[in-house]
Amino acid sequence: MRVEQLADQLNVAHARPGRAWAQDETAAETAMKALVWGESYTVTLVDDDAVYVFTAQPNTGGEPLLPGREASWPV
Q1: 60/40 Cα distance (integer angstroms)
Q2: What does DSSP assign to residue 39?
Q3: b vs e for 1-24, b when ≥16 Cβ sit within 10 Å of the residue's Cβ?
Q4: Is the pTM of this model over 0.90?
Q5: Alpha helix ranges (H) inside the chain
Q6: Is the separation of the CB atoms in 35 and 58 below 8 Å?
Q7: Are 55 and 36 in contact (CB under 8 A)?
Q8: What span, in angstroms and rounded, lies between the C-alpha atoms of 52 and 72?
Q9: Quick check: 42 and 53 in contact, CB under 8 A?
């Protein structure tokens, strides 16, 4: 969802790879397989002035709890 939100803020040319990734079922399957196998998965978007890197990591149980977000981590 966050990749799509960022794509909404970029110009069309820079947003295209992010939108394509978000709508690609094979990419979603690849990401889920990586997480199941204990690997992280990264999506990178590049703009004229910045590089945005989104990383998903499997839950190891040792992640820090962010204030106010305690309920967002599975127990």
Answers
A1: 12
A2: -
A3: eebeebbeebeeebbebbbebbee
A4: no
A5: 2-9, 12-23, 25-36
A6: yes
A7: no
A8: 23
A9: yes
Cβ(18)–Cβ(4) below 8 Å: yes
- C-alpha distances (whole Å) from 42 to each of 35, 51, 52, 61 are 11, 12, 10, 20
- Give yes or no for residue 75 having a pLDDT over 80: no
Residue reference for tokens 């295209």 = 16
Percentage of the chain lying above the pLDDT 70 cut: 80
Mean pLDDT score of the chain, rounded to an integer?
Answer: 83
Partner residues linked to 44 by β-bridges: 53
